[in-house]
Prior knowledge:
Structural class: alpha+beta
Largest sheet: 6 strands, antiparallel
Shape: elongated
Oligomer: single chain
Strand content: 35-45%
Helix content: 10-25%
CATH topology of the largest domain: Jelly Rolls
Number of helices: 2
Mean pLDDT: 81
Distance between the termini: 65 Å
Low-confidence stretches: none
Amino acid sequence: MRALRSQLTYANVVATIALFLALTGGAVYAASKVRSSDIAANAIKSKQIAPHAVKPSDMATPVQFVAKAHGGTASFTNATTDYPLSGKTTWTQGPKEVDEFFVQAKGTVASDPSSPFPTPCFANVIVKVDDQQVASAGVFSGTGTAASTGALMDTGDKDQRQMTASLQSFGCSPDSHVDSVTIRGIGTG
């Protein structure tokens, strides 16, 4: 302790305080003086932006998830049946907002062997918003996964929306089924 006190002089203390003010005060000064026009185009990369620092409202065209839904195993019954969804299936579509939907369906289908005529199996997952079809993903024989997109245009008002789904099939064997469905809705504008 005595060795430290012997090194503490007025000049050392003032130099330490000056260094501290220069480091912290300079950063505050720079933060208040740097404008977007002072930064070169493409100079800031995503790794330099803190997580969650940019919010949808900060973007020129705001982007946000409006719906995130999924469904589980269900049988294709050679008819149209309701398909329950869980997750976020309701939202308010804002004025000038366009919502786009991405649908992925996984399942197993085959043609009905008891059919007197060879008919292909057609099996779809139909996604509707307020009873308007916005997307569908078909599961076909030989392919276990199907993907599709669809869009819902804005009405100019703030409208409450409800997403539902159904299964539709024709000419499928009784063991044809969907394993899972994932739906993502993204709103822009």
